[in-house]
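Helix-turn-helix transcriptional regulator
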Amino acid sequence: MSSPDAHRYTPLEGEALITHNMKVLRKAARLSQEDLAERMTQLGFKFHQTQIAKIENGTRLLRFDEVVALAKALNVPAAHFMTEAVAGPDEPDYELQEAGYRVQKAEQEWKAAHDIEQGARARLEEAEREYDEIAERLAAQGVNVGQDTGPEWYPAPNSTWDPLRKGPSDGQ
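Predicted structure tokens:
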């Protein structure tokens, strides 16, 4: 007869906890073992997909600096990564956890797009300021820079206003 404690959940600890978290977080972030190895390489560790597989299978031990780097590569706080088990695929919180990663990724994409937009705005403002300075200098020299007498402006090549731009209906 088995004891009532036989089916009790035993919390993961130590290296088992870290390998569990690594595997679950990697899959939740939709990273392959190769992707995670590449992230580790970018952080200065020579990792290969086979090393990630061995770590996940428990056949390769981890050094502390590798654990910290793995947490960074998976975008989680190292303290959480080493002390708290994340939801596994069979647990109800797993789906929510995966959705959280998608939200985090979308936020990162939005921030990158926002940064690009801010840079483009700054370049536009600088170009307009330069244009105004040149127009003022030319006007001070007696050059007529009025809008009706100025040179004809042409759209930037391949811009939406470019009459030579091939559209989707033109085979492009």
